[in-house]
Structure formats: structure tokens, C-alpha cells
Fold RidA family protein.
Amino acid sequence: MIDVEERLRGLGLDLPEPAAPLAAYVPFVRAGDLLHVSGQIARDGGGVIQGTLGQDMDVESGARAAQSCALHLLAQARAACGGEWGRLVQVVKLTGFVASAPGFFDQPKVINGASELMVAVLGDAGRHARSAVGVVALPLGAAVEVEGVFLLR
């Protein structure tokens, strides 16, 4: 079994505290064996990572923002599992939303930041289906938001 905490430390990463909802929703819902985690916006030590890809943010910065979203998704998944990583079987699907300027078409490259983190931390269990969508704006001016579906035991 993969030691998620050890893998995170090896990557020089820490999971943040699970973020509280910004509006009238819950951070996650379990439906049978599926865990649906609400969209997590990009955050760092300074707060929300804001920007618009193709305008004031490049793909590399956007991918780092998507990685932040993935860390927040994992924090919510850990909370949903009561801290028992052994209950997490698979990342089923990620949906990434990228604040995009007109003419910006590299949303998949941005969301790779989240996808690659899931595989780096969870191995084959991190491989997933995915959508990457460009949007005009995200909550709090965030550059990226990612939601996830996980299979639990």
C-alpha cells in the first residue's frame, strides 16, 4: 500500500487543512462507493491564486495553481476517509476549470498540474478520466478550480 504522507513529504509538499465551503454547499458527498469532492480553488500561503491564463498568467503558473487544487482535493478526501488513506481506491475523474482569456487554448496543459500530482502521490490509483474547461471567471478571482470523484472502499 502506498504511504501517501511519505510520498507528499518526498515531493516537498504538505496537505493543507480542508477548506470550508464558500457558499451553500458541502465540501464532499459520499454516494455509495463514490466520493464527490466539491471544486477546490487554487490557494497558497498568500491566499487565493488569482489570474487569467493567457492574460496575466502563463501555463507553468497555471499548472502550479492546478497542483494546489489537487492538494486541496486530497485534503478533502483524507477528511472524508477519516484520515485512513487505505480507504481511497482510485481517483475516478477530475474536472478542471481554468480562468481563460479569449484565444487561450491550453487548458489541458494547465490541468496537467493536478493530474500529474495525483499520479505522483497515488501511483496508478491516481490515474483518472478528466475534463479541462476554459471559463471567463472563477470564484474569488481564482485562476483554477478542480473538482474530483474518488472511489472508496
